[in-house]
Write a structure and sequence with these properties.
Blueprint (H helix, E strand, L loop, with lengths): L11 E14 L2 E14 L3 E5 L6 H9 L6 E6 L2 E2 L10 E4 L11 H11 L4 H14 L15 H13 L5 E5 L7 H18 L2 E6 L2 H7 L2 E6 L2 E6 L1 H6 L4 H6 L4 E11 L2 E5 L5 E4 L12 E6 L5 E3 L8 E12 L3 E8 L4 E7 L13 E6 L5 E2 L17
Parallel strand pairs: 3-8, 3-9, 6-7, 7-8
Antiparallel strand pairs: 1-2, 1-4, 4-5, 9-10, 11-12, 11-14, 12-13, 14-20, 15-19, 16-17, 16-19, 17-18
Helix pairs in contact: 2-3, 2-4, 3-4
Bound molecules: adenosine-5'-triphosphate and magnesium ion (MG).
């Protein structure tokens, strides 16, 4: 598997080096971004993913020039842009709330920026039409915003940014206001547009599905820091921390004591008399007697009435809930060791459920699906209000 942390071999479009942002007010200091190091390649669809308040918008605003970092460097196409105003950076931002001018037509809304910049009228008309065609609104160019659906208004906001022909587009939760169906349609639209124009997109979202479906690569942010960077598959299949495992998809967390080490594979004691194998390499550095956290995705677990084949990791437990979901069935299981676990089982046939509520079962999975998690960092003080100096 390729190293997850290397950017593609293209010109780096955006480089953040040790970037931090603190907001200082009379009430104290808020650390919005603690430390971010990041290289984004030209033409990438790159997402910043994380919960509310983790510093996504602040990071994007620093790239766009709407905030200056307290520490660190921001390079756009190799040149340091700290101190350069937004309109002199080769990037354009689509904001969380896109304010269209209500009294102007779609065409006028998109042309507005060009007119202010003094772009020649014929040239402006050509570029506006091109942008409207790209977002498939060329037939609605004389409508006013209130005569458009939410998704169409969002596309006007997009055309308004694209018409400036930036080298990178910064998008702050551009689909948040849309209902689920429209959002999914717009996700595909955005991907198509990005492919057609071939520019770098930096996309902010707190929706993990959106980030997984759209991105070439993404970072998961937590409390002003990057927890993990990688492709959607890498981040989903190999979460490195408890936070990432819990934030992306559903995870089963198990804590055990390292009982023995066989080469670099570890045998973990997790329950009454049960053991789980953590494969070679994954538990590097673990010592006998030490506690280790691991995670197993629910779709990697099997549920059976009897013990599994040799070589599989196994736990015993009792089924507490069975939920039929159409394409799959979800089983909640209380393991003997005390953990509450979930198993997703594909409904490949229309046969009966493989286990029923109250039944004693075995859960099993292949050792390579036991992922050791990095130990949690020491808890940091709430980023809320550190004492003002
Ligand atoms: N101008 C400001 N002054 C003081 N604190 C701020 C300012 N802007 C942001 N913050 C704080 O910085 C932290 C990060 O904010 P930011 O807007 O970057 O989060 P976010 O990840 O975009 O969240 P959301 O998903 O809710 O949009 C928050 O704690 C926020 O309250
Ligand atoms: Mg935000």
């Amino acid at each position: 598997m390729p190293e997850p942390t290397t950017a593609p071999a293209t010109v780096p479009a955006i480089d953040l080096v040790g970037v931090a942002k603190r907001f200082v007010s009379r009430r104290g200091t808020v650390t919005a971004v603690e430390r971010v190091d990041l290289t984004i390649g030209e033409g990438e669809f790159f997402s910043l993913l994380g919960p509310s308040g983790c510093g996504k918008t602040t990071t994007l605003r620093m790239i766009g020039g709407f905030e200056e970092p307290t520490e660190g460097q921001i390079l756009l196409y190799g040149s340091d842009v700290v101190g350069v105003p937004p309109n002199h950076r080769d990037v354009n931002m689509v904001f969380q709330s896109y304010a269209l001018f209500p009294h102007m037509t779609v065409f006028e809304n998109v042309a507005f920026g060009l007119k202010r910049k003094g772009v020649d009228k014929a040239e402006a008309t050509r570029r506006v039409n091109e942008a409207l065609e790209l977002v498939q609104l060329d037939e609605k160019s004389s409508r006013r915003p209130r005569e458009l659906s939410g998704g169409q208004q969002q596309r006007v906001a997009l055309a308004r940014a694209l018409v400036n022909r930036p080298r990178a587009l910064l998008l702050d939760e551009p689909l948040a206001a849309l209902d689920l169906k429209l959002r999914q349609a717009m996700q595909l639209e955005l991907k198509r547009i990005q492919r057609e124009v071939g520019i770098t997109f930096i996309f902010v979202t707190h929706d993990q599905n959106e980030a997984l479906t759209m991105s070439d690569r993404l970072v998961v942010m937590n409390a002003g820091r990057i927890e993990q960077l990688g492709s959607p598959r890498e981040v989903y299949e190999r979460p490195r921390t408890r936070f990432v495992a819990g934030f992306i998809g559903t995870s089963n967390l198990l804590t055990g004591i390292v009982r023995s080490l066989d080469g670099s594979a570890a045998v973990l004691e997790v329950g009454a008399d049960e053991s789980v194998v953590v494969p070679e390499g994954a538990a590097a550095g673990a010592r006998p007697g030490q506690s280790l956290d691991l995670t197993v995705r629910p779709e990697k677990m099997r549920i059976t009435a009897g013990p599994p084949d040799a070589g599989w990791c196994a736990l015993r437990g009792r089924v507490t809930e069975v939920v039929y979901l159409g394409t799959s069935t979800q089983y909640a299981v209380d393991a003997l060791g005390g953990s509450e676990l979930l198993v997703f089982s594909q409904n490949a046939s229309d046969a009966e459920d493989i286990a029923s509520r109250g039944q004693d079962v075995w859960l099993s999975w292949r050792p390579e699906h036991s992922l050791a998690l990095e130990p949690e960092p020491a808890p940091v003080a709430e980023p809320e209000l550190e004492a003002a100096s």
